[in-house]
Design goal:
Its EC number is 5.2.1.8. InterPro entries: FKBP2/11, PAP2/HPO, PAP2/HPO_sf, PPIase_dom_sf, PPIase_FKBP_dom. With about 425 residues, the chain is α+β, with helices and mostly antiparallel strands. About 50% of the residues lie in helices and about 10% in strands. The chain is built from twelve helices and eleven strands. A hairpin with a 4-residue loop joins strand 7 and strand 8. It is elongated and about 90 Å long. The two termini are about 25 Å apart. The N terminus is likely disordered.
């Protein structure tokens, strides 16, 4: 088969629109400001409730411990969600890719392409959501402290009742910064877990965590606010204002920043994973370094850079893992994920026939590398190599065409593929 013109790279996943996000964030901030104003307007009622409650609970030391432990638990939950919903390489740079170098040297779109791009977009959305939410939580805490200095409301325990643990003068009451932070962190957990529901099966927090973590975060935030009132540190309307400020600021940050961060993450994640994956032990050894391993388990290739090679296969079975051997190192720039790579190559099934090569056609091919546009063995084996190198790749089925193969090109399902690749240049 002669597919001389490579297919284009898979289309970029659609990014959330920026302007509607900013407009929605503005609306949330207006609603948040209104909620804070309403809380401030309930000052008199709040003082009445505070006095009747605090005279019975102000001396309870456990209330202070609940507030501290609740806030600490919320920080731990935000970090736990980041770990559970972290990007997986199999989703970001899928083995088998959205398109694959194969017969005719062209990049061939597979039926998995749309699913792979959806997985990448979902992962980028989770990363962007978590980052935006954390930024929002930090901003909310800063706004709370700034608003305190503007309003300068005395604490109830300075004037209304005596309690065991009363903050010192100058540490104003409205709004409750502890509650602001707690509400912001709980909102960060909720929005991140919600975004993670779109991840492919096995790549997210899991059904149990998805159901349990959001309500646990909300309950912890409520406990922090209630404990601050119970210990006498805040009036109820301080806590209500803090809850509104923390929740609203995080939601506004996610709405405003996520449309900007998703495209950045969509481009950055494949680069990061493809670059890191290629540094595993045994993937970047030269022919000199591999010595006996090369001669014992991998094919021998004749010719020098730019010449059509001939492969001689050893006795024994094909390696189960990806093998990368630099037959002759180049001295050009390193190939980076996202580069448009120009190569000459020859491809042959293990102990089978040559299914394609560019040397006979007399023209090299170009394709994006390291971003899931080609089979996984090419992404992992070529990123990080210098331009001018001749590289031998032994690619197991799970990083090639898998069980389906490419029958029309003579590639059977489960075939291990061997390529000799001359890296001509990048752009």
């Amino acid at each position: 088969m002669d597919h001389r013109t490579p297919a284009g790279p898979p289309p970029s996943p659609p990014a959330p629109p920026v302007l509607p996000g900013l407009a929605a964030a503005g609306g949330v901030l207006v609603a948040t400001a209104a909620a804070v104003a309403v809380a401030w307007a309930t000052n008199d009622l709040s003082q009445t409730v505070y006095v009747s409650l605090t005279v019975r609970t102000g001396g309870v030391a456990a209330a202070s411990a609940v507030a501290l432990l609740g806030a600490s638990a919320l920080v731990a939950l935000v970090l736990l969600v980041a770990v559970l919903a972290r990007p997986r390489r199999a989703v970001v740079v899928p083995d088998g890719g959205a398109a694959s170098p194969g017969a005719g040297g062209a990049t061939r779109r597979s039926r998995r392409g749309d699913r792979d791009r959806r997985g990448l977009l979902a992962t980028a959305t989770v990363v962007a959501t978590w980052c935006a939410a954390v930024v929002g939580a930090l901003v909310a805490s800063g706004l709370s402290r700034g608003l305190k200095e503007v309003v300068r409301e005395p604490r109830g325990c300075w004037e209304l009742v005596d309690v065991a643990l009363c903050p010192p003068p100058g540490d104003w009451s409205f709004p409750s910064t502890h509650t602001t932070a707690a509400a912001a962190l709980a909102t960060a957990v909720v929005v991140t877990v919600r975004a993670a529901r779109a991840l492919p099966p096995g790549a997210g927090p899991g059904p149990l965590a998805t159901r349990v973590l959001p309500p646990v975060a909300v309950v912890l935030a409520v406990l922090v606010g209630a404990a601050r009132v119970a210990q006498g540190a805040h009036l109820p309307h301080d806590v209500l204002a803090g809850a509104a400020l923390g929740t609203g600021t995080v939601l506004a940050a996610v709405l405003a920043l996520r449309p900007v961060l998703v495209p950045l993450a969509t481009r950055a994640l494949p680069r990061a994973f493809a670059s890191g994956a290629g540094q595993r032990a045994g993937w970047r050894r030269s022919a000199h370094d591999q010595g006996d391993v090369m001669s014992a388990t991998l094919p021998q290739a004749t010719g020098s850079f730019g010449e059509k090679p001939i492969l001689t296969f050893p006795e024994g079975d094909a390696p189960a893992d990806l093998q990368v051997v630099v037959l002759s190192p180049g001295d050009g720039a390193l190939v980076e994920a996202g580069d448009d790579l120009e190569v000459h190559y020859l491809g042959q099934s293990w102990k089978g026939g040559v299914f394609d090569n560019s040397y006979d056609r007399g023209s090299s091919i170009n394709f994006p590398i390291g971003v899931g546009a080609v089979i996984g063995g090419w992404d992992e084996g070529l990123v990080g190599q210098p331009v001018g190198s001749r590289v031998l790749l032994s690619i197991p089925p799970h990083l090639g065409y898998g069980d389906r193969g490419v029958p029309q090109a003579g590639i059977k399902g489960g075939d291990t593929l061997v390529f000799v690749v001359d890296i001509v240049g990048t752009r």
